[in-house]
Structure formats: structure tokens, C-alpha cells
Amino acid sequence: xxxxxxxxxxxxxxxxxxxxxxxxxxxxxxxxxxxxxxxxxxxxxxxxxxxxxxxxxxxxxxxxxxxxxxxxxxxxxxxxxxxxxxxxxxxxxxxxxxxxxxxxxxxxxxxxxxxxxxxxxxxxxxxxxxxxxxxxxxxxxxxxxxxxxxxxxxxxxxxxxxxxxxxxxxxxxxxxxxxxxxxxxxxxxxxxxxxxxxxxxxxxxxxxxxxxxxxxxxxxxxxxxxxxxxxxxxxxxxxxxxxxxxxxxxxxxxxxxxxxxxxxxxxxxxxxxxxxxxxxxxxxxxxxxxxxxxxxxxxxxxxxxxxxxxxxxxxxxxxxxxxxxxxxxxxxxxxxxxxxxxxxxxxxxxxxxxxxxxxxxxxxxxxxxxxxxxxxxxxx
Length: 380
Hints:
Blueprint: H1 2-22, E1 23-31, E2 37-43, E3 48-55, E4 61-67, E5 73-79, E6 82-88, E7 93-99, E8 108-110, H2 113-136, H3 140-167, H4 172-178, E9 181-182, E10 185-186, H5 196-209, H6 214-246, E11 254-256, E12 262-264, H7 265-268, E13 273-279, H8 286-300, E14 305-311, H9 316-322, E15 329-332, H10 340-344, E16 352-356, E17 362-366, H11 372-378
Parallel strand pairs: 1-7, 13-14, 14-15
Antiparallel strand pairs: 1-4, 2-3, 2-5, 5-6, 7-8, 9-10, 11-12, 13-16, 16-17
Helix pairs in contact: 2-3, 2-4, 3-4, 5-6
């Protein structure tokens, strides 16, 4: 008997455990909706899936059961085109009661604090949207006051959402708060300096707790893109500032040549078309690249063309040998590739080239070596 009881006991435990974790339930009543059809929909990141439906009888009781998602996610109850959004994570049963009139907003949630937070966010945003809609038809006399009221409501809504995010950044309610919109415009943007702290908090929390979740990946990509965008904007601002300080249409460079004498780009560029070249003798294709530049120099130097070559070589001796017989200006920083000019000129790879015309204006960044001849000839 002992041999039989033990396996049966563990089988019962296993079945109970699987049943307990594999399903979630949403149930309740929708009053005054006799004969109406209620739908349960699963809202994934990029698609919505209809899971089930029921025709409501007198009393409006309903009950849906579905497979619990791998990660916390969003669902909707839909009635006559109106819907209630709710999240499912570790809650086995969620109770949502409502009535036909006011179905989408005036419902009561039980057993789920996070869905109460989602409801409050939706109710607050709905009030803002109603005011925004009414503003379009308002008379000029009251439009200013209404606009101020709208701005105040948005500020109050965002203050509440920010507190919610800081309280629990990896909750579905925090995620939901980030993605609310008014007239198709997100209230929180990762590109806004005041919003990005909250966006990044949610993105980081989701990435840490659920790195394989599709919503986590999308948040993280958006946050990183916004950070890179911010850096690019700062780089452009720094560029403009430096150009204004130098009083020319480019950022001046002053570095020593192989003899230790400082050579300034601004001095070389007076009245000439200049190819600014960030490269290195250590490049695998350095020999062929040097022949390309020699041909270019030989062809156009008599017409006022020259080259200002900034070496990013770490090996000084190699650079000195490679540039010994070159007819153009070759300079190098003792910091090699870590010199400050690679930052302000945003050098991501080598070779990278820029073209200055005879007016001292930065014409372009050259991305295709095949176009060099044409670009130089056009700016002589």
C-alpha cells in the first residue's frame, strides 16, 4: 500500500500545482446588459487575440478562464465597442463588476490593486480627453481658461503617474502609465528631458526582471535610442559652439607634425580646398589608401587642393615611417585615437573624411571613397 499511496499523493500535488498556475480567471456581473455579447481579448505588444465570448443573461453574470501569459500582460473585456483594460500577472482570479451604462469607466475591481491603479489612470485620462475634445469647439472667450485647465489636469495626471512609477517601476500599471495618449500624443516621451527619468526607470526595471519579454525589449530599445539621440543633439550643440568660438565654418585642429611643430588646420585651409582625413598607418588597407590620396593630391594640388591628415596611430614610429615622404600635412596626437578631436568630429571608424571649400566652409562628410574626385573637383 505504501508503494501506491506515495505516487498517488505526488500525482495529486502535481496536478493541483499545474492547474493552479496554468490558468487565470476573470469573472463578475455586467448589470442591465441582457442579451449583449461580452468578449475577452488578449492584447499583446503587436497584436490582439480574441480568446472567448459569452452572451450575457439576466443578472449579467460572466466567467472567463484562459491560459496565464508567460509574462504579465494586458487583456480587455469588450462590450458594444467599449472596453475595460486589465492586467494579469500572479493573480489567479480577478473580479470586475460593471453595468451597461458607463461600462468602460465605472466598474469595480476586486482582488487586484494594480488593476485599480490602471482604472484610475484611465479615468483621469478620459476626463482630460473629454476636456481636450470640448476645447476644439469652445468660443474664443473661454478657450484660454479651458486651455489652462487642460494643462493643469495633464500636470496633475502626470504627477500621479510619476508617483506610481517610482513606487513600482516593473508593474503593469507603470508600463500602462507610460503609454497613455491624448489625441495620439504620448504623455511620457523618452526624448523629453523631464520624462526620460520615468521612462528609463520602467525600461530598466522591465529589463532587469523580465529581459526576454517583448515589452521589455521594446522599452529598452526606445530608451537607448533616446539616449543616443540626446548625445547627438549635445554633439551638434557642442559643434556649433566650437565653430562660433573659432570664428570659422569648422572646428579647428592644432596638432604636432613628425618634427613636433604645431600645424593648425585653419592655417593650412586659407584659400584652399582641404580634405580632412582621420586615418591610421595601422589600417589593414593603409597602403592602397595612401596611393588613393597620392593620386588625388597629384591631380588637384596645383589647383589649390591639399590634405590635412590626422593620424590615429598608437605606434608613433610606424606613423613616422609611413608619412616620411608624404607631400601633405600629417599630424598626430600623443593620445592616438583618444584625442579630443575624434570626439568633436564624431569619428566612429577610419578612414573618415571631411571636405572644406576655399571659403573655409565644411562642405560634407565623405562616406563613399568613390565620390572623392567628383567632390573635390566641384569645390576647387
